[in-house]
Design a protein that fits this description.
Helix content: under 10%
Number of domains: 1
Distance between the termini: 6 Å
Strand order of the largest sheet: 2-10-7-12-5-14
Radius of gyration: 19 Å
Shape: globular
Largest sheet: 6 strands, antiparallel, barrel
Number of strands: 15
Number of helices: 3
Structural class: mainly beta
Order of helices and strands: HEEEEEEHEEEEEEHEEE
């Protein structure tokens, strides 16, 4: 059933306000996508840990926001209002699954085994809505290498591959850097089994694979001025679950994300 105006107003009025206060991720570049998972933050939205083995993400992870049980209600984001110290685009995501600890010097196959089968089964997304990224946690080497990803697509066709460039001169190798992984045939990924580089990037560092669903985004066209398009209608009323692991990414316009403040409002109602 569609959400009517009175119910939406009730959900907004009784909603929860989460302050946004994220520290800057530096050594980035204009046009690059940067994860704020490792950015310092408030107790409600604190710094995320570097993941170890493959895991499904939920709201209990450090780096997410602890959400209450929504029971049979429908929960939505009603306001996403980032206030950025630099011009850029702030993106709100559901972090579905991740792993870390991959090396920039190990050649041959490194095990990933990240799957979004469980999040999809739990009704949080569909395979076509999932975005896959290589994510840097600590700096790897400055020698760019071709990385081969072996994956299974949404139709359960396995042993498929795609490639991307891993490492390279700073800021390509820096913490926070996210590289989207896009299948060349347009059939989206269900799980990633391994990654492999033929030659070392020069520094091991730590990087990993992350699967996400984008909820909404807001363009901040003036530094330190909150954009007007932060209301429920403008951001598209994205639905969330009580297990959703909320996180932010930024598409930079300069050499850092800058400090990000503001607020996020979510509410729940029987629709």
């Amino acid at each position: 059933m569609a959400l009517d105006t009175n119910k939406m107003l009730a959900a907004i009025g009784g909603g929860s306000i989460i302050p946004i206060n994220k520290g800057s991720i530096t050594t980035q570049a204009a046009g690059y996508i940067t994860s704020l998972w490792r950015a310092t933050g408030t107790p409600l939205w604190r710094q995320g840990a570097i993941p170890a083995g493959a895991a499904v993400c939920d709201d209990n992870l450090a780096g997410g926001i602890i959400l209450p049980s929504f029971n049979t209600n429908t929960a939505r984001i009603y306001r996403f209002a980032p206030l950025m110290a630099t011009i850029g685009t702030a993106m709100l995501y559901d972090r579905l699954a991740h792993m870390g600890g991959l090396s920039g010097v190990t050649t041959g196959n490194q095990t990933v085994n990240v799957t979004v089968a469980t999040p999809v089964t739990n009704g949080r997304t569909t395979y076509d809505e999932v975005e896959w990224y290589a994510e840097m946690y600590t700096a790897i080497g400055t020698t760019a290498q071709t990385c081969t990803v072996t994956y299974t697509d949404k139709n359960d066709t396995g042993s498929k591959t795609l490639t991307f460039s891993l490492g390279g001169a700073s800021p390509l190798n820096q913490p926070g850097r996210c590289i989207q992984l896009v299948p060349t045939d347009g059939i989206n990924i269900k799980s990633i089994q391994t990654v492999s580089i033929g030659t070392s990037t020069g520094t091991a560092g730590s990087w990993g694979i992350t699967a996400r669903k984008r909820l909404t985004s807001v363009g901040c066209m003036l530094a330190n001025i909150m954009p007007p398009t932060v209301d429920a209608i403008s951001i598209g009323l994205p639905m969330i679950k009580d297990t959703t692991c909320l996180e932010m990414l930024v598409q930079c316009s300069t050499t850092s994300t800058g400090i990000i403040q503001g607020e996020l409002v979510y509410g729940q109602v029987a629709e």
